[in-house]
């Protein structure tokens, strides 16, 4: 009989219960016990939901208070010295929160650990900080506690833990070369593996049969020593005596398939959504007694599964492998919303095309039952519903827009190249008259409760269009006056009218749909509600011009027009699966090109087109980079290529490594790029220095993901480091990212200090 299991489930709750509990605890409005009770209730609910779907094993250990890598880092006791953690005591939850966000209700505030993207997703993790001869220990009991919790509720459990090689690969340290492939980090295995073995021994002692160990780095181009380390690592872990399912996802294995040959693990999971062609190569190295888990339900998108196609893959293997065939989603379901049943306002046609985490478990159950000798009538009916929905989607007139397709075909002839930056910057400076070390922010200002209430009431019809516009104009004027008072040089309108930097634009573009409760976790308590791109993308009318023009009318200082770039809208949406992503991105670029030209015509002299997801979209395999970078750069330039020389184009990127794609970033040819550097202590500037990046750059000096307010001296020091690497006349001073999630008190204090830092730099 085919076994079904799940690699992970969303933690946040269908109504974002975890987010609300975390933020209440951080604010001092919820006790530690009440927070723990919320986590316990969510885990129990989600285990029950998964068990009810018929899973043979439910995942345990996939729940996290901030992110799953930070959970594991603290279990290993790998707490940086600045957090003053005793090596004799357990790591508590407040220490975990201080590592993630810089402060917690208890404990001394400290600089938060670096945060970056989880492979090519919009989920983030806190980067482990590594030091030579680092010692490890079991410093938290959360994994064992949750196993006991689930077992007490009657569930068959499969603990989920990050693999030792993936955890090391993701880690960073001053003593190690930059780049995840530094082989020197492998020396840390000597102290790390005994702790892993002890974890597995304790798990086995709890009566656990299988442990899922995630090694997604098997989807990367691994240096030889890292590939060779798998045999040693899993040979040692086998001594713990528990059965191991080695899980890889997000990409094809390619040459890393040979790593699996003879590896002492009892099972292997592969992602057949991202890499359907690797199945036969994996079968060729699969041991006679090893389980093969097939990821056939898409864990990263929201469309219904073609179960006939999935069945065609699984059926021959069911006869060959028997109970050694396991079925699962492609990866953890934390990347999709919790439950489609929470969507009461989606129209019936669109809703029939969708599948969220809960529904994907149903699809998994139907797929498994369809392989049996006598599938249940309910399964047969479900399969027919899937077929009908997929066919209706394919034939729907809502998907295709002839005008968009015709314009796309003609877009090859549109201008993309501006005059050289050295010539443009002269006319821009003549127009803008900016001082040395000009100051700006990334775009958004705090979204207050009043703003959210106004938006909610307007959408619900309780506030008229005129009243809503008046409320937003009032917010914009307050933000403009605040920035003038503080002394910023290039202002923003604050984005009070925007619910999200992607969702806002999707609501104004054709081809998009929206949910009410389709939340997914980005990091910590930060949740996003990605729009769904189901059809051709068109811009019926201007989206931002009126707000930007109003803001500019209030001040003589330049106000940036704020747009989200085509690649980021693509990456942070659930994208249609019936055409190449490149095609959808070009449609987005054409829509944004119209918006850019309308902003310019309205007198907006500075236009920022944010692309924080540019590197996130980079394929995991280097062989695929060239094609992606070509079309991603082209889409950005398609958006910006028609503006006049005096119009200054900015872009923003955050929490990314740039050294390996710096040529592509330069090819985007933005006049100014702002990047995250405060958590990484200006580390990212090395790429721009080595490349001799020719355009202006704003290295972030204020970490907006932490409530800590930076000192003036700290920011001056960061910029002085930057000035040693890059010409000072090319440097801007700005925060790491937008200020939407921050409070006004800390925002004002931080920006006052940031302007003071810029002034100090100008006169030294």
UniProtKB/TrEMBL annotation:
State whether keyword Zinc applies: yes
Q: Which SUPFAM superfamilies match?
A: UROD/MetE-like
Spell out the reaction equation it catalyses.
5-methyltetrahydropteroyltri-L-glutamate + L-homocysteine = tetrahydropteroyltri-L-glutamate + L-methionine
Residue span, Cobalamin-independent methionine synthase MetE N-terminal domain: 4-319
- What residues bind L-methionine, as annotated? 442-444, 495, 610
Where does the chain bind Zn(2+)? 652, 654, 676, 737
What Enzyme Commission number(s) apply to this enzyme? 2.1.1.14
Q: What keywords appear on the UniProt entry?
A: Amino-acid biosynthesis, Metal-binding, Methionine biosynthesis, Methyltransferase, Repeat, Transferase, Zinc
Kindly tell me the pathway this chain contributes to: Amino-acid biosynthesis; L-methionine biosynthesis via de novo pathway; L-methionine from L-homocysteine (MetE route): step 1/1
InterPro entries in UniProt: Cbl-indep_Met_Synth_N, Cobalamin-indep_Met_synthase, Met_Synth_C/arc, UROD/MetE-like_sf
Stated role: Catalyzes the transfer of a methyl group from 5-methyltetrahydrofolate to homocysteine resulting in methionine formation.
Supply the NCBIfam families for this chain.
met_syn_B12ind, PRK05222.1
Which PANTHER family does the UniProt entry name for this protein? 5-METHYLTETRAHYDROPTEROYLTRIGLUTAMATE--HOMOCYSTEINE METHYLTRANSFERASE
Q: What is this protein called?
A: 5-methyltetrahydropteroyltriglutamate--homocysteine methyltransferase
Species of origin: Pollutimonas bauzanensis
């Amino acid at each position: 009989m085919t076994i079904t299991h799940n690699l992970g489930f969303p933690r946040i709750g269908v109504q974002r219960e975890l987010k609300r509990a975390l933020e209440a605890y951080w604010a001092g409005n919820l006790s530690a016990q009440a927070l723990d009770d919320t986590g316990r209730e969510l885990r129990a609910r989600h285990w029950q939901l998964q068990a009810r779907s018929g899973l043979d094993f439910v995942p345990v250990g996939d729940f996290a208070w901030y992110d799953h890598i930070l959970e594991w880092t603290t279990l290993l006791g790998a707490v940086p010295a600045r957090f003053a953690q005793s090596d004799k005591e357990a790591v508590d939850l407040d220490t975990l929160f201080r590592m993630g966000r810089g402060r917690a209700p208890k404990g001394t505030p400290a600089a938060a650990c670096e945060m970056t993207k989880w492979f090519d997703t919009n989920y983030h993790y806190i980067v482990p900080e590594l030091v030579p001869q680092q010692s490890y220990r079991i410093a938290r009991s959360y994994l064992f506690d949750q196993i006991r919790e689930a077992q007490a509720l009657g569930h068959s459990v499969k603990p989920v833990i990050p693999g030792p090689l993936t955890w090391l690969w993701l880690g960073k340290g001053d003593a190690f070369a930059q780049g995840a492939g530094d082989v020197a980090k492998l020396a840390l295995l000597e102290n790390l593996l005994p702790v892993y073995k002890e974890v597995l021994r304790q798990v086995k002692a709890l009566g656990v049969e299988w442990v899922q160990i995630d090694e997604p780095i098997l989807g990367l181009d691994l240096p030889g020593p890292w590939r060779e380390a798998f045999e040693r690592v899993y040979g040692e872990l086998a001594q713990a005596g528990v059965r191991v399912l080695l899980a890889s996802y997000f990409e094809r294995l390619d040459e890393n398939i040979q790593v699996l040959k003879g590896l002492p693990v009892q099972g292997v999971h592969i992602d057949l959504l991202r890499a359907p062609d690797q199945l036969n190569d994996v079968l060729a190295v699969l041991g006679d007694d090893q389980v093969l888990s097939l990821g056939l339900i898409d864990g990263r998108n929201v469309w219904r599964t073609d179960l006939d196609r999935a069945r065609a893959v699984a059926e021959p293997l069911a006869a060959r492998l028997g109970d050694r065939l396991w079925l699962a989603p492609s990866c953890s379901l934390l990347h999709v919303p919790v439950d489609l049943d929470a969507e009461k306002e989606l129209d019936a046609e669109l809703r029939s095309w969708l599948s969220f985490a809960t529904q994907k478990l149903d699809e998994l159950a139907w797929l498994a039952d369809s392989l049996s000798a006598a599938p249940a009538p309910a399964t047969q009916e479900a399969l027919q519903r899937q077929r009908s929905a997929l066919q209706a989607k394919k034939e729907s007139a809502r998907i295709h827009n002839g005008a968009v397709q015709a314009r796309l075909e003609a877009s090859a002839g549109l201008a993309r190249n501006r005059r050289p930056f050295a010539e443009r910057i002269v006319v821009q400076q003549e127009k803008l008259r900016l001082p040395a070390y000009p100051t700006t922010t990334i775009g958004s200002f705090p979204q207050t409760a009043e703003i959210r209430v106004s938006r909610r009431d307007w959408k619900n019809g309780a506030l008229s269009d005129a009243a809503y516009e008046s409320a937003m104009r009032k917010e914009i004027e307050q933000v403009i006056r605040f920035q003038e008072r503080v002394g910023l040089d290039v202002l923003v309108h604050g984005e009070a009218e925007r619910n999200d930097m992607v969702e806002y634009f999707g609501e104004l573009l054709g081809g998009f749909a929206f949910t009410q409760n389709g939340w997914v976790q980005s990091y910590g308590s930060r949740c996003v509600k990605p729009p769904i791109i189901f059809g051709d993308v068109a811009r019926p009318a201007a989206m931002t011009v009126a707000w930007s023009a109003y803001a500019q009318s209030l001040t003589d200082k330049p106000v940036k027009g704020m747009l989200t770039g085509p690649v980021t809208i693509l990456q942070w949406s659930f994208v249609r699966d019936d055409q190449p992503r490149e095609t959808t991105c070009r449609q987005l670029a054409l829509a944004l090109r119209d918006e850019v030209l309308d902003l310019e015509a309205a007198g907006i002299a500075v236009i920022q087109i944010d692309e924080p997801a540019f590197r996130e979209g980079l394929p995991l395999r280097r062989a695929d980079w060239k094609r992606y970078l070509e079309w991603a750069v082209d889409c950005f330039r398609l958006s910006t290529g028609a503006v006049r020389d005096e119009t200054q184009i900015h872009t923003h990127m955050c929490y990314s490594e740039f050294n390996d794609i710096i040529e592509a970033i330069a090819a985007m040819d933005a006049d100014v790029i702002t990047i995250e550097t405060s958590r990484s202590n200006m580390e990212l500037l090395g790429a721009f220095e080595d490349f001799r990046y020719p355009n202006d750059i704003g290295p972030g000096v204020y970490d907006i993901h932490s409530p800590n307010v930076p000192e003036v001296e700290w920011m001056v020091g960061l910029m002085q480091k930057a000035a040693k690497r890059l010409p000072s006349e090319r440097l801007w001073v700005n925060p790491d990212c937008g200020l939407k999630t921050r409070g006004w008190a800390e925002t004002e204090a931080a920006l006052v200090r940031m302007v003071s830092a810029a002034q100090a730099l100008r006169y030294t």
